[in-house]
Amino acid sequence: MTQLLEARGLSKRFGGVLALDGLDLDVALNEILGFIGPNGSGKTTFFNVITGIYGADAGSVTFNGADITNAAPRAIYNIGMSRTFQRSRLSLPLSIFDNIMIGNHKRLNQGLWFNLVRRGEFKREFEASYRAARALVEVFEPALASRMFEPVAGLPMIDRRRIEICRALISEPKLLLLDEPSAGMTHDETAELMNDILLVRERNKNLTIIIVEHEMGVIERITDRCVVLNFGRKIAEGPYREVASDAQVQEAYLGVA
Amino acid sequence: MDVGLFAQYVMNGLMLGMMYALVAVGFTLFFGVLDVIKFSHGDVVTVGAFTALAAFAGLHALGFNSPWLDLVVMLAIAMMAMAALGMLIARYLVMPLRSAPALNTLLITLMLGTVLRESVRLFYPQGGNPKPFPALLPRNSIDLGSFNLRLDNLLMLAAGGLVIVGLQFLLNRTKLGLAIRAVAQDEETARTMGINFTAIVLITFAIGSGLAAFAGVMNGLYYNEINFGIGLYLGVIGFSAAIIGGLGSIYGAILGGFLFAGLQTIGTVLLPFASAYKDVFAFAVVIAIMAWRPTGLIQEKISERV
Amino acid sequence: MAEGAAKGENARAPLWPGLAALAAATVYLVALLAAENQALIISLLAAGIAAVLTAAWLRLLDRASHSFMDHEDALGGFAVLAALSVAVFFHEDHFVLLLVITVLLYTVATLGLNIQFGYAGVLNFAGASFFGIGAYTSAVLNAHTAIPHLVVLAIGGVLAALIGSLLLLPVLRTRGHYAAVVTIAFALLFKTFLEVNDVLGGPQGMQVPGMKIFGWTFNDNIEIGSISLSFYMNYYVVSLLLLVGAFVVVRRLERSWIGLNLDALRLDETAASCFGLDVVRWKITAFLIGNFIIGIAGALFGMVGSFVAPNNYTFADSLILVSILLLGGIGNPWGLIVATVIVVVVPEKLQTIQEYRFLLYALLVIAVLLFRPEGLLPRPIRRYFPGWRP
Amino acid sequence: MIRTGKIITAGLMAAVLALAAGDVNAKDKVKVGFIGPLTGGVAVNGIGGRNSADLAVKLRNADSKAKYEYELVVLDDECKPNVAVQVATKMAADKDIIAAATHYCSATAIATVDTYHKFGFPVIVWGAVLPDITYRNKYAEVHRVNGTMINQNDANADLISNLGYKTVAVIHDTTDYGKGHNEYFSKALAKIGKAKIVGTFGVTAEQQDFTAELTQIKALNPDVIYFGGLTPIGVRIRSQMDKLGIKAVFDATSGIVSDAYIQGLGPLAEGTLAFREGASTEKLPGGKFFMEKYNAQKYDNPPEAYGAFAYAAMDMILNTIEKVGPDRKKVIDDLGHVIDRDSIVGKITFDDHGQNTVAMITKYVIQDGKFVEWDESEYASGKRKLPGQK
Predict the structure, then answer these.
(1) Top-level CATH class of A1-80+173-257?
(2) Which of B265, C265, D1, D214 has the highest CB neighbour count under 10 A?
(3) What is the DSSP string of B204-221?
(4) How far apart are the first and last CA of chain D?
């Protein structure tokens, strides 16, 4: 099967620390890849490097056949990769709709003339986007769909997570990066959120997902395959059960001696 | 240019730089602990100078006439009064606004500056006029060619230097300094270390404002004249100095202060008979420095706020 | 706010509360401008404050703001009528007209500032300097060239934007307080430059020839039959047009994807760039458009005041512009109008305590920042089309 | 006193009645204006002038034979051209104000003449000395009771040359005032041809630190430093001269003739030269009368150097209004031919530019903390010597 994302010998250094140490990684089209490892093992750094927030010190990244090593974040977003953040990074004073539209940037006409003068056309584009956003929100939480023009500041954590995922999904990316979606949520909330994610996946078969997660239950339930990182290196790879039983992993990660 | 003249320029630059540095250090201290710019700082300098002047008048009313005694008492009163003022400002204007955008803090302290300035102008007797400031330091001077070396300038430079060294000692060698630096590094950790955050902030503002009073008195002794406007200018330059130096870095502030004075002096030498352009020159260089080093020359702490 | 918007989702707010608020404000403004006896003025101000507080307490203000959200176009029209009626009322009173013109043009300037700071979060502490660039442009061009004066206004805006673009590199590279110092340094540099450079009149300043459009001289009083209008009426009309224009542009900007882009980059540059936003492009756009608007306002104000001097464009004046922004409520154009009236008109009317007016004004701003940090009229949530319903 | 019609339409009937009740069966009220620097570094001169004008009005209102009851409207020009244009516009635009005594600072007076002309508002300048104020244009509205700086600079150059000084460095503020002084002094000095100017430095009014300029001057080592500017920077420059050990004579103008200068410098003020047109107040014809009345009012400021002129200007305005009635046009006509009118500053005659011709100049030297007339000073008698005085 074809590879959507290929990382080769990817390295990133912060001062003395090697956050990524010659990491090789392949992500197949349409799979859900679990990305696990102890804190500071380089998971988030990996996300930040492939999304262009940090430049790589060595190695290369290919996405959908194109070399995106050290490309700008916006270029990477434009060719179909989008993400959520470990610490929720919504624009709190803005409405639910606005936050989702931020994720819709590449499909919105950004021309000055269009936005300021051609208000008729703008209205059509706006209404279309509103319908799309609303439909997407309904998948996650119908109750939110009627509150599209309220500030997200007023929402509970789980709803913020949902909005953040909607923001990442609205542009229909090929690859979705989820950075600890369960952080700061109860067990039940997490379960609920995962169902929603799977539901989205049902509708859009060719969506590939990489998920960083500490809740092993989640990983076990939704991933096709796992990669375990430690000290920026890949120490194991495979279906969750195999990986979980791997001695090295248990020592490094699950802490079981 | 002959040596004497050159020495004269250097002396002028040093005196200016010392005053700028003392003000800039205040800005950088406040920013260190609270990530805020307290723009009323410049006008605290003014109020400090006027407090000292009032103290002087009081002393004379009481019949004291020894310059040294006068000077010591004036400094003590002014610095203590400004320290108190600084604490009040921190407690009731700056800390309540911590949750608000940093611009609000900047603006509220700017407005406070206006209040202080206007109060001096309106409520100090004839506060609208330039006030003579007593020359309390020995005025003996030696003429070395076209260089007029004055004892009082030397004394002031020495005093300023001592103050800065003392501050360094306080910050690096004492428990209090450790606490201040801890707070500056990271508020949360500091709290967990059991440091009383509020107390440290107040003390820091007291120290910074005390320095402002010192700078104010120095300004008075140097120019032998003070007016309600001196603070505005000193404040803006002190702020620029702290910024080009790198907010949060004491050395940066000192460097920035002397750098700015240097620029002004160089400006005059480079543009003889157009010396009025010296500030244009100095500020242009400041902008250039910001383009070159967006976080200041010595960077310890990036300001993400505002 | 939230529950208000929730109401807004299903029911359209009625028009009348907004209209009532507008009418009340207009009458009050006329009264304040007309009053000359100090006791009267002070009691008027007290009454005004009391009225606003009670209105807020009775939640009338929310209702007004909702009807503004839903019927903005209509109410905008009425606002223009109100402005015109004020002008008619004081048609021969030179000074009052000048005062209101000042309000109009300061509002235009703060609208420009609002794009930069309120939306894009690009600090500009040199607003008065760019205002001054516009004013000096009209001083020089009106005196030494035959360029039509409407074109001069445009040139004023362009020059402000051009000179402003000298600051682009440092402004783009710096953040927070460091960005602040760049514009502060520019403000000081600009004023000192005007002061020491004789070509532009030095500290003495320059006279600005009055405006002429198609041979119509603005500085002559207008005689229509028996009634005579102050010559300021000419400027009043042009200023009002300029304000309406700027207001519409800023509104449409905010209520478009561009407004969204600016908010996004203000609130979280990194996240925004992860979703395809070109931070540099939009920062530049905001900075230039903002300065352009400020420059035009300045150019017109130069002609109105018929005199320019460095002291009009000091750092302190820039701060006044910024404090108008904060008083009104960052990002809310209607708030800007209210704040400008307060900042420009009130100190002017309190002449008997003229020695103390700066002091009181500063205390007022401090109070607002302490007790209403989000400004008098906080910016409501973005509505792309007033009264639009799914 | 209030625009009744408007207040009523503004819905404030009650207030009007209350206020109107006050004026029942009084003399007609007439408003006259005063403009001067009430704040800033030269405030004392402005306040002295205001008190003197106020005195003139008070005495007139106390006089039962007066036809009208006068109200003095006072505005502050802060000695800044831009502010001056604003307040001048405000005053001239108020039709109720008939005429005014205006301006101590030349920079403000020269900036406002066009405004007075535009509004047809008669003014008498009471303190500003720049010739252009009356001579640049030929405005019927503008008059001046005090003399210009030309004569004082002649006298100044004269004294310097006669004392045998050879080299002069000039420092002047870069407003029209300072530039004017520089121009006329240089001319006068060149005409005599004994001393030469070795360097000229323009400085701005806000400047605090002059060591840079003074260091250059020190290198030029002049006998005399001529200063064309006002008290605040005068004080700074004189004290910083001392810092740099510059021994030269400090030779200043009417701009520093003010107790504030002496208070500002203490002993350092000793030996400063200054010049003023007209006799010193004590020696004026009406000087004694003026001082008595002034002190009787217990003002908290002395009248300062130009108080007597402010009194004379205001008194002339009141006389004219009594004569021709409260009508701007008539007042302008009457002021058009003023010949040998008595006043406390002596007979006043306006030439075709409305300039009072005051030939007499008083030379001052500061001795023991007082402005002493040169000819009576111990420096003239040789008892004391200025630096380098032969």
Answers:
(1) alpha beta
(2) C265
(3) HHHHHHHHHHHHHHHHHH
(4) 63
Range D41-50 average pLDDT: 90
Q: Which of residues 63-102 of B touch C (CB under 8 A)?
A: 93, 96-97, 100, 102
**Facing B279 at nearest CB: one of C117, C188, C358:** C188
Confidence bin at A257 (pLDDT 50/70/90): very low
Nearest CA in chain C to A109: C257
Residues of B in contact with D231 (CB under 8 A): 129-130
Give the closest-approach CA distance of C45 to chain B in angstroms: 21
DSSP state letter for D347: -
Confidence of residue C82 (pLDDT cuts 50, 70, 90): very high
Distance (Å, whole) CA A50 – CA A43: 11
Q: What is the CATH number of domain D26-147+281-358?
A: 3.40.50.2300
CATH 3.40.50.2300 region(s) of chain D?
A: 26-147+281-358, 150-277+362-376
Contact in structure between B21 and B223 (CB atoms under 8 Å): no
Residues 6+ apart with CB under 8 A from B94: B30, B34, B36, B38, B105, B108, B109, B205
Distance in angstroms (rounded) separating the CA atoms of residues B285 and B271: 15
Angstroms from A119 CA to nearest CA on chain C: 9
Which percentage of chain A shows pLDDT scores above 90? 38
C260 compared with C68, residue with greater pLDDT: C260
Structure tokens at A24: 């090789």
Q: Is residue B152 very low, low, confident or very high in pLDDT (cuts 50, 70, 90)?
A: confident
**B227–D231 C-beta distance less than 8 A:** no
DSSP B249-280: -HHHHHHHHHHHHHHHHHHHHHSTT-GGGHHH
* pTM of the model as a whole: 0.88
- Tell me the three-class secondary structure of A165-215, residue by residue: HHHHHCCCCCEEEEECCCCCCCHHHHHHHHHHHHHHHHHCCCCEEEEECCC
Instruction: Report pLDDT digits (tens) over A126-173.
Output: 999 999 999 999 988 889 988 999 999 989 988 999 999 999 999 989
- Is residue C215's pLDDT more than 50? yes
* Complex-level ipTM: 0.85
Distance from CA of B146 to the nearest CA of C (A): 28
Task: Choose, out of C115, C257, C280, the residue to mutate when testing the contact with A (most A CBs < 10 Å).
Answer: C257
Strand, helix or coil at D67? coil
Beta strands, E only, chain C = 206-207, 212-213, 216-217, 222-224, 227-229, 307-308
The predicted-structure confidence for D70-129, as pLDDT tens digits, reads as follows: 999 999 898 888 889 989 998 998 888 999 999 999 999 999 999 999 889 999 999 999
Q: Does D232 sit within 8 Å of B223, measured CB to CB?
A: no
Chain B: touching chains (3 or more CB pairs < 8 Å): C, D
Cβ pairs B/D, distance under 8 A: 102
More confident residue, B241 or C181: B241
Hunting for tokens 């459009």 — which residue is that? C213
Give pLDDT tens digits for D107-123: 999 999 999 998 899 99
Secondary-structure class of domain D150-277+362-376 per CATH: alpha beta
The C-alpha atoms of residue D67 and residue D56 are separated, in whole angstroms, by: 15
pLDDT at D3 over 50: no
Judging contacts by C-beta atoms under 8 Å, the chain A residues touching residue C286 are none
Contacts of D71 (CB under 8 A, 6+ apart): D1, D29, D30, D31, D32, D57
